[in-house]
Fold:
Amino acid sequence: MTGEVSHPPPAKRQKKPSTTGSGASSLGDDLLHEIFLRLPSLATLVRAAHTCRSWRRAVASCRAFRRRFRATHPAPHLGLYSFQASAAPPAAFPSFAPTRFAGKDQAAAVRGGDFFLTSLEERSDGAHGWEIHDCHGGYVLLCNGDQKTMCVINPLAPRSRRFFQFSYKDMIDGHRGIPVLHKACLLLASEEDEDPFSFRVVRIANDESRLRAKVFSSDTQEWSLYPWVHLREEGPPAGSGPGSTSWLLRTNMQANGFMYWIYTTQRRMVTLDTATMSFSVDELPICRGDSTFSIGETSNGESCILYAFNDFRVRVLPREINTDGVQKWLLGKSEQLETELHRVLGKQAMKYCYGLQVVAVRDGFAYLATLNKLHCAGAKSWILSLSLETMKLQDTLFERTSQSCFYPYVMSWPSTLLGNYGFFALEYGNT
Amino acid sequence: MAAPESGDGNNGAARMVTLISSDNTRFEVEAAAASLSQTLQLTILDGGGGGGDGIPLPNVDSATLSKVLEYCIKHAPAAANGGAPNATAVDRAELERFDNEFVNIDQSVLYSLIMAAHNLEIEGLQSLVAKKVADMIKGKSPMEIRRTLGFPDPTPEEQAEMNAHMLEYGWAYE
Structure:
């Protein structure tokens, strides 16, 4: 029999009380983190963290918590921007369609943000609208129709938008044949860097055989112009004469600091490594007339190409970079989506639908448009999102109104919760 | 109050341990239930808590401790089965029903519970209460959360900070 000691030993490893006092406002950071990790989405966390000072600090002061939250909560998709480039007269602003059934907090974000971008009205001259060029990490990149002013804006924090000037004249200097100016791309600091105010804008132009880039940096507030690079190696596409400049499609795609443009022949693509600003040309892993594709990131942040075929099949091709730094696209999983489409669209809509087209890939989701049989006038076309993790279609539908460009909007972390940036930096050190 | 420990090992009746709350109330409980606490488990493995002495818990008052032990006693059999892979659906449904009822309590008790669960390292209980509080928070604006959780009114400095945030992230406050 043991236990003859007069003073009972206190429990070993017993932690210090996490806080003193009572009530929710006095919970310690560890416990707040445990509670916050169980919130359904980033939109909920943002509202909760703004409840009081100590709650905001609990998030802003702890990068490890933010990493855990990101790992368990996919960035909320708030909606889809679209823009019809050929419309005349041009639209004043891009259109926005919110995601359906997204929960109260995401709905509050859409309701309270400036997703119609009307706060840009004061900078519009009336004659030109704002054309959307890109949308990434919660920011929208727009160019005024006069092609002189560009803007980066977060609709959820519209007051901290940035305007900067753009001129294409030096870009097309020394061109051969007819020059073509492509849409600008927005490159943000990586998620891990968490700097919400640092970005680059990359714009390329091509002539009959060459390509060049111009890059704006938010740090220097200046554009840098890069020299022409000869890239065209394929013969011109059928039907185009010498001097044709239509060898590169106008769509731009990006993933993990690499940007991609596709040849009109759809056999090759140009890759720009934005770390080194060097171009290269790669064969596309699949080139079939009945397929469409887009490049983006899977849910764990890897680059991938998603192909959609006319028989409702899709295939993911994750990227692998070998030791020489050469990228290669692997044949990843494939999925037949016909049953899933039936479930989401219903029998009636499926009657008109003969295939799927990829319109965008972003943060683990692919956006697919349904293609209708030509003779079915009046049949609606839909845009659906597909989780690349589960390969299930989400129940969120957008009606496709025209042959537009589509830009999914994904919410980002507000600067108030990121610790050490600008106006909202924590006033005193480590808490 | 404390049951005498069976002299040679734990073969007989279930081994009991005594826990002493901050207000000096003694609780006698099966070692298996108390061992849901990672903190207590080590002490108990070392042979502590039996016999006439008890394990003092200076951070947990008797009201909270009795609630914590209610949870531990209910969950001990399933935990003993190693996460209960062979538990029947009925057992699991019963535990779920118990959990839902269990956190349907006054807020002040919830906060004491989560702090106790944290201090005693009872993962399941901490997770259960954290989920309950998260459910109380979601779908609400900061002011609604303040009201729901009974926060005191913001201090002038806090209000000034909130006003600055509101200018930038107005949507979060609506």
Summary: Chain B touches chain A through 63 residues (CB under 8 Å). Confidence is low (pLDDT under 50) at residues 1-11 of chain B. The helical segments of chain B are 31-34, 38-45, 62-80, 89-102, 107-120, 123-137, 142-148, 156-168. The longest strand of chain B covers residues 16-20.
